[in-house]
From TrEMBL:
Entry keywords, A to Z: Coiled coil, Membrane, Transmembrane, Transmembrane helix
Membrane-spanning parts: 96-117
Compartments in which it is found: Membrane
Region (Disordered): 1-32
Primary localization class, coarse: membrane
Name listed for the protein in its UniProt record: Putative snare protein Snc2
Keyword Disulfide bond: no
Any Pfam family matching the protein: Synaptobrevin
Low complexity: compositionally biased ranges: 14-32
Membrane topology: Single-pass type IV membrane protein
Gene Ontology biological process terms in this record: membrane organization; vesicle-mediated transport
GO terms under cellular component: endosome; plasma membrane
Family: Belongs to the synaptobrevin family.
């Protein structure tokens, strides 16, 4: 049972000493494995950064969506207010025109009626 090899596990370091006699190529294999593991760790770190950036982007997009909704509500309120003011100004203009027309009619009546009465 002592001759039996231990199963390979890249996460358990060998401690720098070869436990198997006559294994010259294993040190090179360990270096290659360590290089691959370092590359994998680097890739995992980059992917974690990317995931964090995507989640931050999602939060910013949610914030932007909320701001867009608020702006749309404000624009609708502004449109209603502008229409209300436009109608008020139209009525004010119509009242002024009516007053001018009534004033001109009264002025014409003051001028025309006495001249018609005087000619009879």
């Amino acid at each position: 049972m002592a001759d039996r090899e231990q199963p390979y596990d890249p996460y358990i370091p060998n401690g720098g000493a070869n436990t198997q006699p006559g294994a010259q190529g294993q040190n090179g294999g360990n270096q290659r494995t360590a290089a691959l593991q370092a590359e994998i760790d680097s890739t995992v770190g980059i992917m974690r950064d990317n995931i964090n950036k995507v989640s931050e982007r999602g939060a910013r997009l949610d914030s932007l969506q909320d701001k867009t909704d608020n702006l749309a509500v404000s624009a609708q309120g502004f449109r209603r207010g502008a229409n209300r003011v436009r109608k008020q100004m139209w009525w004010k203009d119509m009242k002024m025109r009516m007053c001018l027309i009534v004033g001109i009619i009264i002025l014409l009546a003051v001028i025309i009626v006495p001249s018609v009465v005087a000619t009879r």
